[in-house]
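Worked example 3. Consider a protein that binds magnesium ion.
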Amino acid sequence: MVIPAETRIRVLFSAEDIAARNREIAAAVAALQPVNLLVAPVLKGSFMFAADLLRAMHAEGLAPQVEFLQLSSYGAGTASSGQVTMVRDLESSVAGRDVLLVDDILESGRTLAYAKDLLVARGARTVRCCVLLEKPAPRAVSVTPDFVGFSCPDVFVVGYGMDVAHSCRELPYVGVIES
Ligand code: IMP
Ligand code: MG
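Given these inputs, the predicted complex is written out as structure tokens:
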């Protein structure tokens, strides 16, 4: 699937709104005074959010380490397969650490629940979840995010790291494809 350059996208969350929200989330994380903080973005969709959030965290005086994990629950389409698989694991131990999982969207809850359960089982001191967007419940798996950028309508969104069939990740905003 190739997305034509003239595709029209309706902006749902602008770059400016996202930047302002990132600063608020970073301040809220800093207020918790995390110990030996590890920020763990879930690739691929969270890469842009995580990069901006980390810079906002730096501005708040935080000095987290960062490691990525990659999980997959979608194929190239827009419907979740329901099965979460580990594509790439963290390299360091999380034992005794405060971990902040960062993901793009909470939808069914499967991705975050999988990641959180895994890191808790590995002995993390705390595992908190930060998502840019939270879609409406019901969830297939119950998981409550600790930090949420925005409530998102129940539509398929793209941009700011999120893709449709590997396209549109580069957009600096979150939007909906109109045509
Ligand atoms: P969950 O496991 O159903 O909560 O799925 C969350 C994951 O599905 C997110 O991390 C995204 O990668 C993907 N996803 C869910 N909704 C969308 C969407 O509207 N656009 C792009 N990716 C999505
Ligand atoms: Mg994802």
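Take a moment to read the result before moving on. The chain is about 25% helix and 30% strand. The mean pLDDT is 93.
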